[in-house]
Write the structure tokens for this entry.
Amino acid sequence: MKVIADENIPFLRGRLEAIGADVTYVDQFGFTPELVKDADILLIRTRTRCNSDLLEGSKVKLVATATIGTDQIDMDWCRREGIIVRNAPGCNAPGVAQYVWSSLLRLGFDPGRHTLGIVGCGNVGKIVRQWGETIGTHIIINDPPLQHMGILDTYASLSDLLTECDAVTLHTPLTKTGRYPSYHLIGDAELSLMKDNAILVNAARGPVVDNAALRDHLASGRLRAVIDTWEFEPRVDTDILDMVEYGTFHIAGYSLQGKQRATRMALEAVEEVMGVEINKEGLEPPYMADPNISAERIIESYDPIYDTLALREDPEAFDRLRHDYNFRNEP
């Protein structure tokens, strides 16, 4: 079994080698057609583009990404070619919830008085909601796909949510086609609906928000924002970075436990497809809802100002800061 793996997937080294796999570790940009042509498995992260340019004519059977997103993978092409794709849905959801709630609480969001709008109530949005309701927050949900499937117990239109909420947090995938595209879901018209002094949090995908429109609204002083994902990252709009309350380098989900879950899920994909058993000792199990979460625990667990200051000091160090990040513990 030949595996090409991103060298920065944590807690991975030695586990596949122990079952006799031939593993080559490369930088996330080091995956080339020549390198992968004889591989059975690719283990990747967010920046490795898996499409016909990389995979045409290869022996690859499985592409497993140790991330929740799959927008770096040409899913349709892989499906046609019989290449199995697996991601790690929900692996970092508690870490993102920690980021969102720590930011909001530190910015004066009052759980007992203010209303939070959640756009996208999948793995991440669901935990943001659970924590919010546990600490006494009124939550409004917008998720058209889930509403269409009839599995939401509460639902509001996007316009109503934006109008009514004191803060809005985005947790959608990035899609440009289909019935519910999310590209530039939040643009000038949507931002204009938000309350004065409301807070927009984007810890989903950068292009879900039209960054040019956001820049104008922040410059007016009417809105506040917390941005972890940027439209053209790793390039950062420094004007927006200077105006947001917190601006970080796509590390909302960078918890120690989340990284362990992601690696576990990638290894489980290998087990499923290749019919092997891999030692996953020491890797965090799936998250279980915490009925005792509190605002105090969340605030004490993480302060986004330090990551914000690091990015403001050197915006061009976006990828290096991510690479060298000291994974934090979840609350």
